[in-house]
Structure formats: C-alpha cells, structure tokens
C-alpha cells in the first residue's frame, strides 16, 4: 500500500518533467520522476509505502469447465485491507485482470463484485479498457474481523484446444514496469 496525492497543476503554466524531491510532514521521503504536466491537468505524486495499511489478496474459488467448443475458467478473489490507523483511510485499489488486444482468442468478463467499480472518467477511458479494475473506497480502522473486504469474480473464455500458461519472470517484470509507467502518468 502506497501513500499518494492527486494534485492539479494550478500554476497557470506547464510543469516540465523531471526529478523531484518528495517531502511529507517536513520529512524527506525520496526522489521520483514526474512527466511534463500541462496547466490544469491532474497528476499523482507518490510518498512511499504506508506501513499502517496492509492489503492481501486470496483466491476464493477457481472453476474450470468446457461448454461446447470453449473452455471457461472462473476466478473468485478477495482483497482484505487492514487499517492500523485511528482514522478511516481513502483507498484507490487497482487490480489487473488478464488482457489481450485481440479479444477473438480470449474473452474476459467481469462477474459479481461486492463493491462497485470506480466511476472516475479518466479511469473508465484509459485504464478500464486495458483490464484494470479500480475501486475507490474508504477503509475504517481495524484488522482481522474488522478488516475491509472486497470480493470480485471474473471469467476467461477461450477455445478448448488452447491452453493458459503463466508468463516467465522477465515477462512479469516487463508487465509490472509497464503497469507502473502507465500508473504514474
């Protein structure tokens, strides 16, 4: 879980991209890169890990069956958020589903969710079409039985002659870097 601030460039001028020093409550938190930001545009600035908020994902159920010539895999997951602070915390939770540009070989559909997805216009336009799920929620203080829980299901449908396989370590790292690069825009 990372602390972030969504800011707007209200300077009346474009901000040039480059390295910035990040401070929080008068304390240096590190350096990061920001892209060029046009006047009036919003951007996100990270402040590092928040050690008082923890998140974990667990696989609740996985079903695999064949319907006609297609194979269907349904996956149900739960994300649990522990908030060890004394006050509620606003959370922007992102989760990646499998995604392919060519939807003829793999069809991905979202199923039941315990919380509604974000209605943010930028999210719906840029991230949602790429298989990113995003929830904007508030986690009250608490852990264990008082934790915030979110459940969701999605399914994959593809020709039964095809197989799903995990990607190798280099592909995972490249996908993670691409996600972080897109996320920091």
What would the keywords be for this entry?
two-stranded antiparallel sheet; single chain; mainly beta; globular; 12% helix; 185 residues; four-stranded antiparallel sheet
Specify the structural class: mainly beta
Number of strands: 10
The biggest sheet, with number of strands, parallel, antiparallel or mixed sense and barrel status, is: 4 strands, antiparallel
End-to-end Cα distance: 18 Å
Average the pLDDT over all residues and give the rounded result.
Answer: 89
Oligomer: single chain
Poorly predicted segments: none
Order the strands across the largest sheet as they lie in space: 5-6-10-8
**Total count of helical runs of at least 4 residues:** 2
Report the portion of residues in β strands.
over 45%
Radius of gyration: 19 Å
The helical percent reads 10-25%
Task: Give the SSE string.
Answer: EEEEEEEEHEEH
The geometry reads as: globular
Description:
The protein is 12% helix and 51% strand. The protein has helices at residues 121-127, 169-183; strands at 2-8, 18-24, 27-34, 42-49, 53-67, 70-83, 89-96, 107-113, 132-139, 148-159. It is globular, with a radius of gyration of 19 Å. The protein starts with a strand and ends with a helix. The chain contains two helices and ten strands. The model has no long low-confidence stretch (mean pLDDT 89).
């Amino acid at each position: 879980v990372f602390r972030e601030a969504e800011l707007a460039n209200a300077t009346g001028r474009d901000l040039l991209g480059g390295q910035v020093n990040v401070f929080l409550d008068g304390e240096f938190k590190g350096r990061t890169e920001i892209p060029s930001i046009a006047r009036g545009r919003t951007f996100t600035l990270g402040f590092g890990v928040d050690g008082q908020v923890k998140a974990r994902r667990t696989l609740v159920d996985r079903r695999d069956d064949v319907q006609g010539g297609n194979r269907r895999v349904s996956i149900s997951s739960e994300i649990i958020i522990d908030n060890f602070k004394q006050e509620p915390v606003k959370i922007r939770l992102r989760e990646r589903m499998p995604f392919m540009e060519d939807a003829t070989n793999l069809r991905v559909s979202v199923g039941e969710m315990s919380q509604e997805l974000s209605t943010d216009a930028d999210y719906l336009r840029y991230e949602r079409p790429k298989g990113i799920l995003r929830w904007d929620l508030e986690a009250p203080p608490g852990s264990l039985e008082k934790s915030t829980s979110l459940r969701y299901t999605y399914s994959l449908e593809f020709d039964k002659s095809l197989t799903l396989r995990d990607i190798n370590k280099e592909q995972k790292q490249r996908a993670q870097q691409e996600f972080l690069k897109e996320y920091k825009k």
